[in-house]
Amino acid sequence: MMMKGYVHSTESYGTVDGPGLRYVIFLQGCPMRCQYCHNPDTWNMAKGSLMTAEDVLKSFFSNRAFYKSGGVTVTGGEPLMQIDYAISIFKLLKEYEVHTCIDTSGINFQPENKAYMQKLDALMDLTDLVMLDIKHINPDEHLKLTGYSNAPVLAFAKYLEQKKIPVWIRHVVVPGITFNEEYLYQLGYAIGALTNLKALDILPYHSLGNSKYEQLGISYPLKNTDDLSREDAIKAKSIILSGIKQRRAGKD
To answer: What CATH number is given to the structural domain containing 61?
Structure first.
């Protein structure tokens, strides 16, 4: 029997989900409850559509020439909650030498779980790029923001470095939460040690997800938080880059 996974949706024209034009697969299910999450409809895995890898990639392959400079990105939710399904998707793509990318928070990293690590190694052998979303560099603030410690996330980052998997770091900058000079610098200093770091994406917080919470009857935790301005997004990136430069220069 062909493996099936829970799929939330697909996007045929992804331009911010890795290099080139991407076919983006949103998998269902996420353990975290980030206060700024814009996709609360992806939290419950069972609410997705069950699809085989062949099903979910049918549209991609019928328009494959369209993605010749890009590839396929699997995101979520949290895609590593369905690691077997992600492997089945990437195995099929690699038969056709398609560029593959995982967009993950790394929260499911389980180095003490041998069976899980064997599966993760298998997936990484099929993965060309990981987009790692670090929610907060401070462990206590990460716990408040997401409900989880960031220890698995940072350990996953080191694992990716050891595996020599190229990484793009993504970071949502939220006024009053992550838009903080000390935290931004600490983030830059931490990721500056990664030899596999290829890019930094700053994602300015916006309140467009508020309407989804209303539709789902869920209280939105940040309903009184202002959107991050373009100027502050530029400032935030500059601070992170300064931390990266300091770390790579060997300065405190």
So the answer is: 3.20.20.70
Pairing of strands 4-14, 49-52: antiparallel
Structure tokens belonging to residue 39: 């996709």
CA–CA separation, 71 vs 18, rounded Å?
8
User: Has this prediction a pTM greater than 0.90?
Assistant: yes
Q: Give me 149's structure tokens.
A: 């410690």
pLDDT, residue 224, reads 87
Task: Note the pLDDT tens digit of each residue in 33-70.
Answer: 999 998 899 999 999 999 999 999 999 999 999 999 99
> Cβ contacts of residue 59 below 8 Å, gap of 6+?
10, 12, 23
Within 180-229, residue ranges assigned H as helices are 181-191, 210-216
Query: What is the number of structural domains in the chain?
Result: 1
| Interstrand relation of 22-27 and 71-75 (parallel, antiparallel or unpaired) | parallel
**Axis crossing angle, helix 114-124 with helix 83-94, rounded to the nearest 10:** 30
Q: Which residues is 169 bridged to in the sheet?
A: 132, 200
* Angle, helices 151-163/114-124, rounded to nearest 10 degrees: 50
d(CA 219, CA 35): 10
Q: Kindly list the distances between the CA atom of residue 114 and the CA atoms of 4, 110, 159, 213, in Å, as whole numbers in the listed order.
A: 23, 8, 14, 38
Strand arrangement, sheet containing 22-27? 49-52, 4-14, 22-27, 71-75, 99-104, 129-133, 167-173, 197-204
Q: Which residue type occupies 38?
A: H
